[in-house]
Amino acid sequence: MENLKDFAKNYLNFLKSNLSVKKIETVYEIVLPFEDHTGDSIVCYVDDKKENGMFFVSDDGYIINNLIDTGMNIGKKSSRRKIIEQICMLSGVSLSDDNEMTVLSSGEDLPSKVHQLAMTMLQIDSMYLMNIVQ
After folding, report:
1. How far, in Å, are 17, 18, 19, 37 from residue 11 at the CA level?
2. What pLDDT is recorded for position 75?
3. Contacts of 117 by beta carbon, 8 Å cutoff, 6+ apart
4. What's the pLDDT tens digit per position in 81-102?
5. CA–CA distance from 21 to each of 47, 64, 93 (Å)?
C-alpha cells in the first residue's frame, strides 16, 4: 500500500476474502474475520424464516457461554451480568435468559446489524480479562 488512499479498498478486500456464508438447513452461518479470546472466529447465524418481515440474527449463546466455560461467574444477579446487559442495551442487542444475543433486521439493514452484533460479541468477549486480573 503506497499511501492511505488505498486503505479502504484493501481493507474491504481483506474483509471479503476472510468472510464466509454457508447455509445450514434454514439458517445461514456467517463466519466473520474477527476472533474471540480463544482464537475462534466470530460467527453469527441468520434465520431465513422471517419474523414479521425481519431477519433474526444470533450468536446462538456462544460468547457468554464460552466465558462461563472458562470459569467466569455470570450469574443472573452478578455485577458481570449487569455489565453485559448494559453493553447489550447500549448496542441495541437483545439478551435472552439462556445467554443468546440477538438482533432483528430488515433485509437492507442486515449487513449493519450483523456488524453491530459482532462488535457487541467482541466487546463482551473481552470480559475474559476480568478473570485474569482477579
Report:
1. 10, 11, 12, 22
2. 86
3. 44, 57, 58, 59, 93, 101, 102, 103
4. 999 999 999 999 999 999 999 9
5. 12, 23, 21
Residue holding cell 422471517?
50
Name, in order, each residue with C-beta under 8 angstroms of 99's C-beta and a sequence gap of 6 or more: 61, 63, 64, 65, 68, 74
Predicted confidence band at 2 (pLDDT cuts at 50, 70, 90)?
Answer: low
Go through 13-33 and write b for each residue having 16 or more CB atoms within 10 A of its CB, e for each that does not: eeeeeeeeeeeeeebbebebe
Q: Under a CB-based contact definition with an 8 Å cutoff, are residues 31 and 17 in contact?
A: no
Point out which residues pair with 31 in neighbouring strands.
20, 43
